[in-house]
Amino acid sequence: MEKNSLNGITFYSGEQIPVELHKVRVVQKLFLNPIDERLAAIYRAGFNTFQLNTLDVFLDMLTDSGTNAMSDNQISSMLKADDAYAGSQSFYRMEAAINEVFGKKYVLPAHQGRAAENIISQAFIKKGDVIPMNYHFTTTKAHMELNGGTIFEIYTEEAIKIKSNVPFKGNIDIKKLEDLIAKYGAEKIPFIRMEASTNLIGGQPFSIANMREVRKIADKHGIIMVLDASLIGENAYFVKKREAEFKNSEIKDILLTMCDLADVVYFSSRKVSSTRGGGICTNREDLFMKMRDLVILYEGFLTYGGMSVREIEAMAVGLMETTDETVISQSPSFIEFAVNELDKKGIPVVTPSGALGCHVDAIGFLPHVPQKEYPAGALAAALFIISGCRGMERGTISSVRLENGEDLLADVELLRLAFPRRVFTLSQTKFLIDRLIWLYQNRELVGGLKFVEEPAVLRFFLGRLAPTSNWPEKLVAKFKQDFGESL
């Protein structure tokens, strides 16, 4: 029998299986409610998985933001928190961790990643500016547009292909970047943004080689670079696995290499260090001073930034743990397993597997559902009904409505199934796969959705939808026929 190796663990098996590199010491009870109760729950939620009550959810795969499992060292660190409004020692421990992990001297705390985006957008963007990036994130786009900017996604051709073997689909297209600067002028570009493991196109990473090319162009034109480091640990992991130059490098050195190429680094601690909170850091005092007073105005004093000191302590430990490959490899290895198993069954998933979650192509899964009827949202609702697993729509519901009343159709329609760090077991992952296989075999039963309540901004959070037909009831009837009444 062939010997296989995965994440440093060697075992004899004919199957590649991710191994949990931790042990479970504290547990929370889960609820797998009967399907009739799940159907009622999705109606109450307006067919928006954000509106579901967690008591209705079995496996919560909505997001990895604030849902990662904290380590024993993080939890114990919270007991030594220094409860001070100003000058807290907890902040200085966090500052030291950021200095070591990101290599940045000046640190500004914020209560979460989108708060950091607000500070950066207000500090640097003026009306008429354009901001190039490898891909947008929903809150990023909103903050930049509210401050008068226009984003330009200058991704490569491979970025939005569902099936691909290109290892770095999060790269910036260098030719598009040069053309954009030539068209608008460097004076209209406050910064170039790179997102570590692009969220909306399947958690796809960028290479350090690409980041170096972007840096050269930025230096040539006197433009600063901003790095969204919320999933930088996973991006570093993919660099080690997929970029030959770094195959023998330590994760901590890869992290420093990436951050050294950026003038400003910001992050959501909910993702990068398994705690609530966020931050901004830089080695340039002039950039620090442009943002400093905005932190006091919008977040809190400079040594707490809207966070509790207990969160700050746990963040410091979590940032250090991000340099540990056994920690950051957990989500990517489980995601890779799920993607490979689904791909074997012909279920359309984004390949290669990326960070954050397994991404199912809703257009390929539900080709009979028009994009204007939100196939990714319908797929998220259908999966919840038949499994209790809560995923997130990442498609046109997460987009916007144009002035003419039409939807701005998304580049891709994805059902994102997040794998928070160290949360789900292999058996739970196999349950998800099993239910997706059944749903794919019965996909013709799933119909579309329509808005019945639609907020003007970030509608995917609070919007309410309804099915375009009685397809949910037909799906439930078929499920009961195959599985019985109880599940």
Please describe what this structure looks like.
- A five-stranded mixed beta sheet has the order 4-10-9-8-7, with helices on both faces. It has a three-stranded antiparallel beta sheet with strand order 11-14-13. Strands 1-2 form a two-stranded antiparallel ribbon.
- The chain contains 19 helices and 16 strands.
- Helices cover 40% and strands 14% of the residues.
- It has 487 residues and is an alpha/beta fold.
- Helix 14 (330-344) runs parallel beside helix 17.
Assign the structural class, choosing from mainly alpha, mainly beta, alpha/beta, alpha+beta, or little secondary structure: alpha/beta
Low-confidence stretches: 1-6
From the spread of the alpha carbons, the general shape counts as globular
Compute the CA-based radius of gyration: 22 Å
Number of strands: 16
CATH-assigned fold name of the largest domain:
Aspartate Aminotransferase, domain 2
Concise summary:
With 487 residues, the chain is α/β, with parallel strands linked by helices. The protein is built from 19 helices and 16 strands.
What are the key terms here?
disordered N terminus, 5-stranded mixed beta sheet, alpha/beta, Aspartate Aminotransferase, domain 2, 3-stranded antiparallel beta sheet
Per-chain topology:
Layout: E1 3-6, E2 9-12, H1 35-44, E3 59-60, H2 72-77, H3 89-102, E4 106-110, H4 113-124, E5 130-133, H5 138-146, E6 150-153, H6 174-184, E7 191-195, H7 208-221, E8 224-228, H8 232-242, H9 251-260, E9 264-268, H10 269-272, E10 278-282, H11 285-298, H12 309-321, H13 325-328, H14 330-344, E11 357-361, H15 362-365, H16 375-387, E12 389-390, E13 392-394, E14 414-418, H17 426-441, E15 449-453, H18 459-462, E16 464-467, H19 471-483
Parallel strand pairs: 3-12, 5-6, 7-8, 8-9
Antiparallel strand pairs: 1-2, 4-10, 9-10, 11-14, 13-14, 15-16
Helix pairs in contact: 1-16, 3-12, 4-5, 4-11, 6-7, 8-9, 14-17, 16-17
